[in-house]
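ligand=iron/sulfur cluster
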Amino acid sequence: MAGIYIHIPFCKQACHYCDFHFSTNTRTKVPMLQAIAEELRLQKQYTGGAQVQSIYFGGGTPSLIETTALKTLLLLIAQHFSLGKDLEITLEANPDDVTLAKLAAWREMGINRLSIGVQAFQDSVLKDINRVHNGQNGVASVALARQAGFDNLSIDLMYALPGMNQAMWEENLATAMQLQPEHIAAYCLTIEKRTVFGHWLAQGKLKAVDEETAAKQYETLVEVLTAHGYAHYEVSNFGKPGHFSQHNMNYWKRGHYLGLGPGAHSYNGATRQHNVANNQRYMDSLQRGVVPCTVEVLTTKDHINEYLMTGLRTQWGCDMAWLKAQYGYTLAEEGNYLPQLVERKLALFNHHQLILTSQGKLLADQIAADLFVA
Ligand code: SF4
């Protein structure tokens, strides 16, 4: 089983926190989609003919793309890959792009899951982070998607945002609960250097939310969502039973996937490929019939560290017996580290499965790093 990710590298405007690859110059949408189609043809063997179980249009802003172009890509995928019967096809949509006409076209072409980039419902917060849409657009986009018949919706929310206090965060969660999406992805703001927020932070124009406030908002998030029947199945992801993201689970369980588009990366168990994160260079290269990527051959150390990094973020944790059997990885030299995690209620052992608690998941990246093979 494998996944296909298609990176659509265009946005209407740059959000102040965003570190993804995108361009606000949308004039090259048509040649870009041609280049992605070409990459798809060239890379069709990357996952070794495995059946595709999920397709994910991410970005950037896939909802900016003409529906006919999205349909062409899906038809091309069907032509070159064997598709699973319960194929999940997700499209990331920004609330301001969601119309009944687009929704009908998305459904007609087989898209059966939407991930809507709501982020917050307060206009002031959305303005502070430079989103294009307003709070009302967020609510309306979910209602329109329901009207169009979508029964698998995810919304993105953000916390630890400057200008959003605890009361506002609680208000956002309450609004989200009224909308009853099947899935919620809630991200803690991290300020990356090369973003507008990163520059403002360096210049002293922005004060980051302190760790205590961020931790309190995370705690509230987990409390509210679990009380409403969402499973906290990954640090930032919460789903109703039967509505976990198949595509993301494939990443976290280290399934194989092909990433298409500038900045996308792929994994087939032996190598990881990283496409150039530059629209023009990507298109120029594909015009010459060359996929512009760097190929990394993974070592045993990479496999162990990646398994720890992704596994500990999920509710399934890491199978330490499997790690030992597969790679000879043992924690003997780590001394009391694991018992201490358990004692501090950050982790528990279910047989040989190391699983982080909600509190532990907040520190998942640090804990994984502590366990990495050097
Ligand atoms: S819409 Fe998404 S990808 Fe585009 S700038 Fe904003 S956060 Fe980044």
